[in-house]
Amino acid sequence: MSNYTGRRDFMKTSALGALSLGVAGSGLAAGSSLAAESSITTGSNLEYRFEAKPLKESTLTMDGISRKTMEEHFKLYQGYVNKSNEILGLLKTADPGKGNQIYSDIRVLKHELTFAIGGVKNHEIYFDHLGGKGGRPEGQLLADIEENFGSFDAWAADLKGTGIAARGWVWLAYDHDTGTLFNYLGDAQNTFPVWNATAILALDTYEHAYFIDYAVNRGAYIDAFMKNIDWAAVEKRYDAIPKKS
Ligand SMILES: [Fe+2]
User: Fold this and answer.
1) C-alpha 22, offset from chain centre
2) Contact 180, 202 (CB under 8 A)
3) For residue 107, what are the CA distances in angstroms to 37, 41, 87, 91, 95?
4) Rounded-to-integer distance, Cα 113 and Cα 44, Å
5) What's the first-to-final CA gap in the chain, in angstroms?
6) In the chain, where are the structural domains located?
7) If you measure from the C-alpha of residue 115 to the centroid of ligand 1, how many angstroms do you get, rounded to a whole number?
């Protein structure tokens, strides 16, 4: 994820005066830059914050997923960016000496932080590999899909079936321990990823991703999603992963 800026980059952005904490609906393809008023300490030595990446123009002119859907979807993503930064800011003053498993500031903030950051990361994968021509991947990714699922069509059928069954997300991910690809199901952006696996494709199955275009027909939306995948973007993610030898 390249949009997590360190303190130095943040200071540069802030100096440009790009200040916004609201959920803004403008600046989609022109380069939306969001910045908080101050740098953030997370409670560890790490200091970072999130910035919204603009949508690619090609994702606003797709066949089957409308511009309206994408523009509204982008607003939700901006909300996750803003809330991630807001929670990180609140953690700066949360007292770790008052931790409590029933209720405590640190519990609530760290719980909801996973939902907020999940909303950032999952949407960045999703937006990044939309706006393509569909079809099939090539190279190592196609070979490994065929090896793990039997065929590309079997993988696609499994993705669609998992997408119908999910309440939030489906991820095609590489498990570094087993060296295999699998379509994981999530009921929200912070459930149910597994450790030591890397998502290379994300299918958003929340209603906001398709209701404007397809009402309750999620299957038709998943078909449209498949027609608009930019496989080169997925291949780029997959090729960057060190594989189990
Ligand atoms: Fe979404």
Assistant:
1) 20
2) no
3) 25, 17, 12, 10, 11
4) 15
5) 25
6) 4-128, 139-239
7) 12
Could you give the residue ranges of the DSSP H alpha helices within the chain?
7-15, 67-91, 105-128, 139-149, 152-165, 211-214, 218-227, 231-239
The answer to whether the pTM exceeds 0.70 is: yes
Q: At which residue do the structure tokens 């930064």 appear?
A: 85
Q: Report the topology of domain 139-239.
A: minor pseudopilin epsh fold (3.55.40)
- Summarize pLDDT for 149-197 with one digit per residue, the tens: 999 999 999 999 999 999 999 999 999 999 999 999 999 989 988 999 9
Contact 224, 66 (CB under 8 A): no
User: How many angstroms separate the CA atoms of 160 and 151, rounded?
Assistant: 14
Ligand 1 centroid vs 218 CA: distance in angstroms?
14
> For residues 109 and 1, which has the higher predicted lDDT (pLDDT)?
109
pLDDT in tens, 65-87: 999 999 999 999 999 999 999 99
Ligand 1 centre to CA of 169 (Å) is 9
Q: Which of 245 and 102 is assigned the larger pLDDT?
A: 102
User: What is the C-alpha to C-alpha distance for residues 16 and 12, in angstroms, rounded to an integer?
Assistant: 7
Spacing, Cα 189 to ligand 1 middle (Å):
9
